[in-house]
Design a protein that fits this description.
2 copies of one chain form a homodimer. With about 325 residues, chain A is an alpha+beta fold. Chain A has helices at about 5-15, 60-80, 100-115, 165-175, 185-195, 220-230, 245-255, 260-265, 280-290; strands at about 30-35, 40-50, 80-90, 120-125, 130-140, 155-160, 210-215, 235-240, 270-275, 295-300, 305-310. In chain A, the strands form 2 sheets. Chain A has a 6-stranded mixed beta sheet with strand order 7-9-6-10-8-11, sandwiched between helices. The longest helix of chain A is centred in the N-terminal third of the chain and has 18 residues, at about 60-80. The interface between A and B is large, with 74 and 74 residues.
Chain lengths: ~325, ~325
Amino acid sequence: MNKRPDEFELIATYFAPLAADPSALGLTDDAAVLPGTGTDEIVMTADALVAGVHFLPDDPPGQVAQKLLRVNLSDLAAKGATPKAYLLTVALPADWTADWIGAFADGLARDQETYGISLVGGDTVSTPGPMTLSLTAVGSVAAGCAVRRAGAKAGDRIWVTGTIGDAALGLRVLKGQLAGLSQDARDFLADRFRLPQPRVTLGPRLPGHATAAIDVSDGLIADLNHVCETSALGALVRADGVPLSGAARQALGGGEVAIGDLLTGGDDYELLFTAPADRHDDIAELADAVSVPLTEIGEMTEARGVHVALADGSELEIADGGYRHF
Amino acid sequence: MNKRPDEFELIATYFAPLAADPSALGLTDDAAVLPGTGTDEIVMTADALVAGVHFLPDDPPGQVAQKLLRVNLSDLAAKGATPKAYLLTVALPADWTADWIGAFADGLARDQETYGISLVGGDTVSTPGPMTLSLTAVGSVAAGCAVRRAGAKAGDRIWVTGTIGDAALGLRVLKGQLAGLSQDARDFLADRFRLPQPRVTLGPRLPGHATAAIDVSDGLIADLNHVCETSALGALVRADGVPLSGAARQALGGGEVAIGDLLTGGDDYELLFTAPADRHDDIAELADAVSVPLTEIGEMTEARGVHVALADGSELEIADGGYRHF
């Protein structure tokens, strides 16, 4: 049997050679940064969702719309960009209904108001397969100020927004697992999975502070590893410094979940960024200014690889660096 | 049985209300025009292709890639924009092969060289359905110079590039029809369907000449009707002034095809534009300068609707204004 490449190998083998333009950042970043003729650069990112793969046919259509839009806004935030507009292509299955599309459009309308952006184009086609949605988001950032994955320096501190691992637990709740948690905790975690809160107020404030940034979509360790690889560095994370929600602590306490599950769980759409150690106070002030919790969880190292120190001084064994959504 | 909206109704009902931003041009244009901070504006357009709907699983993958890219470049050209970059999302079916993707990427590589653009981002996901491809193309145009659909004036002359109706005949050839044509004619027409030649050299020269423009993708009459509706005008076309290829004349002469089939056939990806009558000589010079055949086929009128005058003085009866690809 021939082994086919996985997502990362496929991109590296077939698509990265097409992305020679510096704007593409080698396809190793969250978004492309296109030079403009003025004081701003254009930042662009695209994501696709497939019914039955990324969402279930009976998921609320408005939430599907919001998740599709928000994961792209999270990518823009990770570059320090302010969202401006988006394009949407929709492949409609044979059994699509006007009700579904109406509720989907309502979800977009709500988020357009929340995030101050607008639909500007796209395409609608039919498919014999499942509903397939693709969204391209466009933002802007002051020229030269886009934050890259590949800018971290050894000794930089690693910061994350919000709490880590909730969305992966939320997916387990939605699958009927983690029945031992309180209903409040279960609801909280399910919401965290269903409806990401992209850090759009923090993102545009990162230029000038952050040396590198990424959004936590594949899992903390996997995404930190992306920063390490593109920055040609390693990282040391203190497990007990990683911010956890009350619900996640409850799950951890109950023994149904291990810290490794939280550090490798995807879909949180928090931001991870690196900044020089002497910026600590500025960043604490920034957290207050934008009302986003920011926690320092470790530092970048010359030694390659992501290492996680546990409270007892031992090191967390990492099986495969996080989950892959492909 | 509930009647579901068609593509145009669906867009008008559910998506146009989301496109309040002036950049979106009400979703009635080929592309969005986003203001920049400098001397250029950003022009963006997106199209999707689905295996089994828009291409066949055994079509050459390189040609599928080129058609996907070129239909978007045609949209940019219709706005007067110069292409810069593109993003691609790919939903891979369960039976995808590295050979298919490799040949698809080779097609993109060839066109990147031809058109001087580069892949800058996108997404790769899996699907239980057919291969689904979505491409967003980005171009630039001098600020304020983008050509809209809604700019035609009564009395403006209507111009088209190249020849009209070939692609629709090519599709019939590929379905085994039009067997009475010469092999050369059949090959020519099939190529016209398989591989559009977007008018990228002409497009960026249209600002300053054209008052409105569109690319001929739904069919000459349908696309001219889009210009008429957005410009609140009508049009009168002289059927014997519409440029036809030798192969199309052969088909017309053989009686297997009527002039109405050519004027309503889609997928030509020629440009149609309007310009003041006194620009005739400038436009003839422009045709020479960019080596693109340009033919004046009629004029814009205060009287609404698209009217086609036949050589015998009668008017062509138009059943439904062109075909709809949905």
